[in-house]
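User: I'm curious whether this sequence folds into something compact or stays loose and floppy. Could you predict its structure so I can see for myself?
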Amino acid sequence: MNKGELVDAVAAKANITKKEALEVISAFLEVVTEAVANGDKVTLVGFGSFERRDRSQREGRNPKTNEPMTIPATRVPAFSPGKQFKEKVAP
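Assistant: Here's the prediction. I'll summarize afterward.
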């Protein structure tokens, strides 16, 4: 499902226009993205949590030359599904 299909499904489920659904979904994504970028954790009980995780520097290998190289530390977004979400996906 892409964003357009999600907008259509939300509009139908909530009985609102597609334009309103698009505005709500876009606002939700923007708020979650900003919060996670600022280091906050966003938890939706039953659905899951969005958070920022720090990856430490580590050693790796260049796949072409097989030479060792250092992979720098970085920050990545992470999602942890909630209990109800997990149960619904894998009963």
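Summary: The CA atoms of residues 68 and 83 lie 40 Å apart. The chain has three helices and five strands.
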